[in-house]
Specification:
The protein is 47% helix and 27% strand. The protein is built from 6 helices and 12 strands.
C-alpha cells in the first residue's frame, strides 16, 4: 500500500517536471525568434547606414574634386575670360546704343523739297507778302502780312488744293498795331494784318525714345526706340518709371526732356504716377528719359 502511494507521488512529480519543461521550451523558442528579428533590424540598419555613408563619401569626394577644379589655374583663367568677355559685351552694347542715337540724329536732318516752295510762291495772293519762311521737323511755317484778314485764309485754301501738304493750319491773324517802329510806317499804312500759317509736309512723323543715365556721361541704357505715327495720332509709352538693363541693373526715372525741353516737376510727377507718357503727333518728337541707379532698400525688423 505504501509502495503504491510512493509510485503515484513519483508520477505526479514527473508530470510536473514534464509540463514545466514543455513551457520552458516554448519560452525559449519565443526568445530565439525575438533575438533573430532584433539581429535582422541591426543588419538592416547597418546596411542602410553603409549606403548613406558611401553616398556621403561619394558626394564629399565630388565636392572636393569640384573645389579643386575651381581653385585650379585653368578654371580661374576661364573665370577671368568670362568677366572680360562680359565687360566687352557691355562696351559693345553701349557703342551700339550710341551708334543708333547718332544714326537717328543724322536721319532727323531732313530738308524741304523745292516743290513745296514753288507751290507756295505760285499760290501767294497779290495782297499778301511773306516776311519769314522756316522749315523744321516736317513743317513749314509761313509768317507774313496782308491787306485783309481773309487773304491768309485764301492762301490756306489754295495750298490745300495743291494736295502737297498733309494739313494746312492758320496759327494766328492779328491786326497790326499803330505803335510800330517809325521805320515801318509805310508798312503799317499798306498792310493791316500779320499772320502765321503752318503747312505739314509729312503724313506721318516719328516719335523717338532715348533712355540714358542722368550723369555727365549720359550713357545710353538701351537702343533708341523709333516709332512712326500718322499725323494727329496719339503716341504712348508705358512702363517708363523704372528700367532694367540686360545685366539686371535697375534704374529710376529722374528727368524727362521733350525735344530738348525739360518737363515741369508737376508734369514729371504725373508721368511717374501714371508710369507712362503720351501726346498728340503733329511733328517729329524726341523724348529723352534720364535715369538714376535705383537705391536698394532694406527692411528693419524689430
Amino acid at each position: 500500500m505504501a509502495n503504491n502511494r510512493k509510485l503515484e507521488e513519483s508520477k505526479k512529480d514527473m508530470n510536473f517536471f514534464s509540463e514545466f519543461g514543455g513551457s520552458g521550451g516554448q519560452v525559449g523558442s519565443y526568445m530565439s525568434m525575438i533575438l533573430i528579428i532584433f539581429l535582422g533590424f541591426i543588419v538592416i540598419g547597418v546596411m542602410v547606414y553603409g549606403v548613406f555613408f558611401l553616398q556621403a563619401v561619394s558626394i564629399r569626394n565630388d565636392i572636393d574634386t569640384l573645389n579643386a577644379q575651381m581653385q585650379s589655374p585653368e578654371y580661374q583663367q576661364k573665370l577671368q575670360n568670362y568677366a572680360t568677355l562680359n565687360e566687352t559685351l557691355n562696351v559693345l552694347n553701349r557703342e551700339y546704343y550710341d551708334i543708333t542715337y547718332l544714326y537717328a540724329s543724322i536721319e532727323a536732318k531732313d530738308t524741304v523739297d523745292s516743290t513745296y516752295m514753288d507751290a507756295i510762291a505760285k499760290n501767294l495772293p497779290k495782297d499778301v507778302i511773306l516776311t519769314n519762311f522756316t522749315y523744321s521737323a516736317g513743317k513749314i511755317l509761313l509768317q507774313g502780312s496782308s491787306l485783309t484778314n481773309t487773304a491768309p485764309l485764301d492762301l490756306i485754301a489754295s495750298l490745300t488744293e495743291e494736295s502737297l501738304f498733309s494739313r494746312v493750319e492758320i496759327d494766328a491773324i492779328d491786326q497790326i498795331s499803330s505803335d510800330k517802329d517809325a521805320l515801318d510806317l509805310d508798312y503799317v499804312f499798306v498792310y493791316k494784318y500779320d499772320f502765321a500759317i503752318t503747312c505739314y509736309v509729312n503724313t506721318s512723323y516719328t516719335v523717338s525714345f532715348k533712355r540714358m543715365v542722368d550723369d555727365v556721361t549720359s550713357e545710353a541704357l538701351a537702343p533708341i526706340d523709333i516709332t512712326e505715327y500718322a499725323i494727329g495720332d496719339t503716341y504712348s509709352e508705358k512702363g517708363i518709371s523704372t528700367f532694367t538693363t540686360l545685366d539686371n541693373k535697375t534704374y529710376t526715372l529722374a528727368r524727362v526732356l521733350v525735344d530738348k525741353v525739360a518737363v515741369s516737376s508737376e508734369k514729371l510727377n504725373a508721368i511717374l504716377a501714371a508710369d507712362s507718357i503720351e501726346g498728340i503727333v503733329t511733328s517729329d518728337v524726341t523724348i529723352e528719359l534720364f535715369y538714376v541707379p535705383q537705391v536698394a532698400t532694406t527692411e528693419v525688423t524689430k
